[in-house]
Amino acid sequence: MRILSTIDVLARFGKALADPTRAAVLLQLKDGPAFPSDLAESIGVSRQILSNHLACLRDCGLVAAEPAGRRVRYELADAKLAHALDDLLGTILTVDTICGCAEPAHDQDTTTGPFASAGVRS
């Protein structure tokens, strides 16, 4: 296991938040542990898509898988992440309708899809 620089830590967090599905998973897990099938249903994605996103979040060190009998439950890897997400959500940002970032995903309407169920608006 290697120790990451602060820039690497922020880059991993940014990578996780850059995708609406991963952001929705983190927001759901902010409220407590959940099983993948429940996450997939509440976010509105297939279990396979959710599995891929959970793998990414595990690789980034943001979520942990905990055995629960024959199932696996996911939770935030550290309680401080819930506070960080709350702090980010509490920050008021004024943004242009269209983001100048290189990735087209930033231009999405967040009044529908994974962010809508999490109560996040652009």
UniProtKB/TrEMBL annotation:
<dbReference type="GO" id="GO:0032791">
    <property type="term" value="F:lead ion binding"/>
</dbReference>
<dbReference type="GO" id="GO:0046686">
    <property type="term" value="P:response to cadmium ion"/>
</dbReference>
<dbReference type="InterPro" id="IPR052543">
    <property type="entry name" value="HTH_Metal-responsive_Reg"/>
</dbReference>
<protein>
    <submittedName>
        <fullName>Metalloregulator ArsR/SmtB family transcription factor</fullName>
    </submittedName>
</protein>
<keyword id="KW-0614">Plasmid</keyword>
<dbReference type="GO" id="GO:0097063">
    <property type="term" value="F:cadmium ion sensor activity"/>
</dbReference>
<dbReference type="Pfam" id="PF01022">
    <property type="entry name" value="HTH_5"/>
</dbReference>
<dbReference type="GO" id="GO:0003677">
    <property type="term" value="F:DNA binding"/>
</dbReference>
<dbReference type="GO" id="GO:0010288">
    <property type="term" value="P:response to lead ion"/>
</dbReference>
<dbReference type="InterPro" id="IPR011991">
    <property type="entry name" value="ArsR-like_HTH"/>
</dbReference>
<dbReference type="InterPro" id="IPR036388">
    <property type="entry name" value="WH-like_DNA-bd_sf"/>
</dbReference>
<dbReference type="GO" id="GO:0003700">
    <property type="term" value="F:DNA-binding transcription factor activity"/>
</dbReference>
<feature type="domain" description="HTH arsR-type">
    <location>
        <begin position="4"/>
        <end position="96"/>
    </location>
</feature>
<dbReference type="InterPro" id="IPR036390">
    <property type="entry name" value="WH_DNA-bd_sf"/>
</dbReference>
<dbReference type="InterPro" id="IPR001845">
    <property type="entry name" value="HTH_ArsR_DNA-bd_dom"/>
</dbReference>
